[in-house]
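pasting for ref
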Amino acid sequence: MEEGQNRRKRSSVVNRSLQYRFLALILVYGFIFLMFFGITLFLPEIREMHDESLSMAVRGAAAERILSKHIWVWPAVIFLVCLMAAHSFLMVHRVAGPLYRFRRTFEQIRDGNLGFRVRIREKDYLHPEEDSLNEMLESLSNRVLAAQEFSNTALRSFERIERSLVDTSEGNDLDRKLQSYIKTHGHSLRALSDALKFFKLERG
């Protein structure tokens, strides 16, 4: 399990859906940029080539300029777009990584584990959200701990009262209504105590 988590930490892909969606979006924008750049760069020469009022020499020179630009422009532009896509992909990773950690945090809270704090990498984004999430966990842990202590105290107190009532009855039957109240109250306190035990507060 730990080995799989370490592999995921080393990987640049922690949220395939999000990161590949952003990569596809970046590539689409890059393609649009290429089209716009190509039209803007080559349009004057293309117009000269198709202008029949110009001499063949001028039109031929325009065609040569287009060929010359093709040789160096497209490799440079495509390299730039790929570089921007790779860099953007890594930048998205700095968001996807914390989102992955936050999702794991929500899963642990769902399972009742409050004894941990969120830690994301120093260069990741969403550090304010990390702080807010940790503050929420700290506050929730303190309140659950207090509720557990109050519940345990109330249960111990009830058990003493219950024993005292039994002892003072000297073998006589207690009033049925009182027995019912005691039984219901005890059941509720034990159910509350069991429900609060679901939460784990120890720091791992």
